Amino acid sequence: MKKILATLFASALLLVGGGGIAAASDDVCQVSCGPTFTKEETAWGKGGEMGGANWAMFTPYSCACGNFLIAGNPKKSENKVGFVSFSPPDADGKISITIDVYEWKAKFSDPLTVHIGYYDSAPTDGKNPAPGQLDVNLEHLVLGVDYTFDAVEQKIVISGLEYHPYYAVHTEVLVK
After folding, report:
1. Is the distance from CB of 145 to CB of 161 less than 8 angstroms?
2. What are the structural domain ranges in the chain?
């Protein structure tokens, strides 16, 4: 009788232990699977070229339905890693810009780096804008401008921006 009970007890432990081991390996797989992002790139909202020997771009607000976010040098290839879209102006004439990174292609760098410049005419003078000196910088927000960041969806919404016909939208992303 003792042998039967010992055998049943050992079988029960194997079943419980085996389930625990399977569950643990499933958890490890969920955590370790997925793309590895190792290369940092500058990314600009797609649009017209600012000219000169750079790849800075501007996006017209008339593309209110949105435009692609391009990482790296678009003169070599268009690595579309996300989407930039504009909201309609609110009652105060302010807009929001949403930068939505495709999670399977890239993710925002840490710390978050986003710069936005706005222009009344197309900035095609050939000058490469220094991103950190554009009108809006997440590291140093101007009064009335705020943002929300969704780390899971890899999406930033910058709100309270002045309406202008043209915007330069710059961010830093990590790509594969």
Report:
1. yes
2. 1-33, 39-175
